Amino acid sequence: MIKISKWKWMKGQICDGMVELLFPAAEMCPVCHQEKSESSGIGRNCLQKIALITPPLCLKCGRPQRLEVFNAKYCQQCLVTGYYFSQARAVGLYEGLLREILAELKYRYRPELGQVLGKLLIEWVKLHREYHDPNLIIPVPINTQKLNQRGYNQAELLANPLQKYLGIRLGNDIMVREKLTESQNALSKVERFLNVKGAFRVINTKSVTGARILLIDDILTTGATASEAARVLLRAGALDVKVLTVAIGVMDAQWVENIEDGGE
Ligand SMILES: [Zn+2]
Ligand SMILES: [Zn+2]
Fold first, then answer.
1. C-alpha distances out from residue 180 to 150, 197, 199, 248, Å
2. Domain ranges of the chain
């Protein structure tokens, strides 16, 4: 019996090796490493675990709304907050597997996940013609200190594949984040807006003048970060700022406990 199971184990090893030869690492799902990746860059099983955003949603901030209470164009949050971006959209809900992937990307040095999530953004844009309109793509910048700690700006990794797909200029030299903002974790909604105020500065006004900008970030929670970046870009002469993020947090009474680090 022992001999047989040992043989089976060895056979298993050989088969695994063959699988790797047939499907090199690049074609395996980079999230679970257990399935073949699809054209979106992620495997089918993992993709099914992501809660994609579906209507009804707020036309401004893109937050999904509960059908029974939503019969307006805009959500309650947008009615009280004057967001500077013209619209924001996200691919999925900030929960479950997507939340785990984003944490890996931000805190565990997994740049390949940025590439994969960037491909998800492409798949989303393919279905949304209004997002073909921008002529400049800007990843929300992070502070230099954070950049050095993390090794990359995750928003830039997300923007790269989309920039190639849309064939528009990547503006990673247009805006800087000067203020090392306090971590957004423990802040209330109002405090988040104040915390991020004055965080960005446009250093290349010429490129921004008259531009239709697509702002890319990993997560949209209160929208404070994206709105402040949009405000600064519009003041510098941009015509329009649209936002696209991988995930969006749904705000409720527990929102402070449920969300992390608001887009940094
Ligand atoms: Zn997978
Ligand atoms: Zn809204």
1. 14, 11, 8, 23
2. 45-263
DSSP 183: P
Confidence of residue 193 (pLDDT cuts 50, 70, 90): confident
Query: Which class for 50: exposed (0-12), middle (13-18), buried (19 or more C-beta within 10 A)?
Result: buried
Q: 45-263, what's its fold?
A: Rossmann fold (3.40.50)
Residue 177 three-state SS? strand
217: which strand partners?
245
CA 47 to ligand 1 center in whole angstroms: 7
Output the CA 156–ligand 1 centroid distance in Å: 23
pTM: 0.84
CB 226 within 8 A of CB 86: no
What does the alpha-carbon distance between residue 73 and residue 256 come to, in Å, rounded to a whole number? Answer: 25
For 82-96, write each residue's pLDDT tens digit: 899 999 999 999 999
Tell me how far the alpha carbon of residue 227 lies from the centroid of ligand 2, in angstroms.
12
Helix, strand, coil shares of the chain, percent, nearest 5, are: 45, 15, 40
Closest ligand to C-alpha of residue 43 is 1
| DSSP per residue, 235-255 | HTT-SEEEEEEEEEPPP-TTH
Closest-lying ligand to the alpha carbon of 58?
A: 2
Q: Which of 18, 91, 24, 50 lies closest to 243 in space, CA to CA?
A: 91
Ligand 2 centroid to residue 247 C-alpha, Å: 15
